[in-house]
């Protein structure tokens, strides 16, 4: 949540001269995203976000993410639009970092989404998946089974520092998921990290979807599972069935779920819970020196995992 | 350079309901100021900065700072204007912190000010001092002689870790300044920290002056001395006489300097250089755990101090 790379007015003005976006009238570093440096830029013509990709971003993946955003924005999804310079390039180098100027989206992210906001999310997610079907690039999901195994191995020795027995619980869950992980479900371009932080609202209307830097090709229903985990539990980690019902129903109204997807939902939800449990556990055990952001509690997602484990039938999500 | 206190949408909306400023359409934490949490807020009516004052700010001083900004803005200085809620209050409590909503100012701060920008600064500073004359509150300058003595004492034992002989240089300079520090010069409300970071430009026009949290009552010419130190040296810490000349001349054109002020300028410049040398030295020796901002090199101001020590006559600043 900080600006890591400083961009001064001279560097900025030289950069903007290669675009047809007008001249800077305001330029402020914003505390958005944990991994990159972001500036809110206002010019004589419009408003933009300038992102400098810091070392945790793999530069080889950046064209995929930018092309994905551009494809989705072109299909009517309120995703940021990467801006091209006068020579047609979107991905640049600025202050020694890969960088991109993207369109600004208004709206405010919600801390406690309402049922209506979950309904809007479901509709938008289904639309995003439909538009994504014509995106012809692909990227494997680094944080699916193989990635979880790697994180489980890296955290195994110390997981019990966080909670007695956690390492064994993770191993058992990973074995169960590996044995039963669905195949053959409709697949395509997914966001894979669609937390409330990454959706901007004006009232109950979605005005922005941001942070596509986990975007990848995977089962579409996995995105729903991520949303159920992150949108449909309250602060005490209690499941909110009304929220899940509206989310799933509106998704289904915009893109019909197949019987296989519905059946797989509890398992996909377990997988998504394990994914955030593992990444949070890793970050908890390996805090970044000097980081301003406090690592998030991994056990929030152990609670969700246990909830999903006792779901026998997807219908229980929409009671 | 970070947001320390998070404000979620519910807290924000409840807060905004006490104002007549419209509803939030965008809300982003900005990486501005080292000591407070700042958000850029856009509403259906206008744009604002929401500041939450963190623990380094003395809550007792906040009414002074806000009243100073309001007085200056009312007198035509492009200072942020504290916004009053429906009951007339500007200083609030939000998320357990003192907080204030202030008007947004456009413009971009310049890294290497030009001579024309120094001229604009001189004119604005003189106007600010004139408008400040009718501000009827006062606050002592914590970072004048007495404050420097305190910092010198606190850093004395370890100053030589930064540079051999530094502690003795500081002691000698402090003694010299104490013996000769001017009295009886025109005094009033000063900014006291008017670095290029704190001035927003559109081209060569000043559109904003920010960060009044060192504002106090002291000799007006001390503000000029701070500006000479922070605006009139290049990256290699070489004095830029053309910059100083335009700054001083334009100040004088808007508010005539007295002979005593002109004569005292070299000494005031030494004092201002010592002030930033000492605060930077203290921060260098006492880094804040987990801070994202790297402490600034105190020796940049030792170089400036040595430059001012060899100035015999203020006329040398404007050759």
TrEMBL record, chains A, B:
Positions of the Aminoglycoside phosphotransferase domain = 27-255
Among NCBIfam families, the record links this protein to:
PRK05231.1, thrB_alt
Q: What is its EC number?
A: 2.7.1.39
First-level EC class: transferase
Where along the sequence do coiled-coil regions lie? none
- Recorded family membership: Belongs to the pseudomonas-type ThrB family.
Q: Catalysed reaction per UniProt?
A: L-homoserine + ATP = O-phospho-L-homoserine + ADP + H(+)
Q: Which CDD domains match?
A: HomoserineK_II (cd05153)
Gene name for this UniProt entry: thrB
Q: State the name under which the record lists this protein.
A: Homoserine kinase
- GO terms, biological process: threonine biosynthetic process
Look up and give the organism this protein is from: Kordiimonas lacus
Keywords attached to this entry: Amino-acid biosynthesis, ATP-binding, Kinase, Nucleotide-binding, Threonine biosynthesis, Transferase
């Amino acid at each position: 949540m900080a600006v890591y790379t400083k961009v001064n007015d001279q560097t900025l003005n030289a950069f903007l001269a290669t675009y047809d976006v007008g001249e800077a009238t305001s330029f402020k570093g914003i505390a958005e995203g944990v991994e990159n440096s972001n500036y809110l830029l206002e010019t004589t013509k419009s408003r933009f976000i300038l992102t400098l990709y810091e070392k945790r971003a793999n530069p080889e993946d950046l064209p995929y993410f930018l092309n994905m955003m551009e494809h989705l924005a072109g299909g009517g999804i309120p995703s940021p639009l990467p801006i091209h310079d006068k020579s047609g390039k979107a991905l640049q180098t600025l202050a020694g970092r890969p960088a991109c100027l993207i369109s600004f989206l208004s709206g405010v992210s919600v801390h406690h989404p309402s049922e209506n906001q979950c309904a809007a999310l479901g509709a938008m997610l289904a639309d995003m998946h439909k538009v994504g079907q014509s995106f012809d690039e692909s990227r494997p999901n680094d944080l699916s089974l193989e990635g979880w195994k790697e994180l489980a191995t890296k955290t195994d020795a110390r997981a019990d520092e966080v909670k007695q027995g956690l390492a064994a619980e993770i191993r058992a869950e990973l074995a169960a998921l590996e044995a039963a992980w669905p195949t053959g479900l409709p697949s395509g371009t997914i966001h894979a990290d669609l937390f409330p932080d990454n959706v901007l609202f004006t009232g109950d209307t979605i005005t922005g979807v941001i942070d596509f830097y986990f975007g990848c090709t995977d089962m579409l229903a996995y995105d729903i599972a991520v949303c159920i985990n992150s949108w449909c539990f309250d602060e005490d980690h209690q499941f909110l069935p009304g929220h899940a019902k509206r989310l799933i129903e509106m998704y289904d109204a915009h893109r019909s779920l197949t019987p296989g997807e519905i059946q797989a939902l509890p398992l996909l939800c377990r997988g998504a819970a394990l994914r955030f449990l593992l990444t949070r556990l890793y970050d908890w055990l390996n805090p970044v020196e000097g980081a301003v952001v406090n690592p998030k509690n991994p056990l929030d997602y152990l609670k969700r995992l246990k909830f999903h484990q006792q779901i026998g039938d997807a219908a229980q999500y929409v009671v």
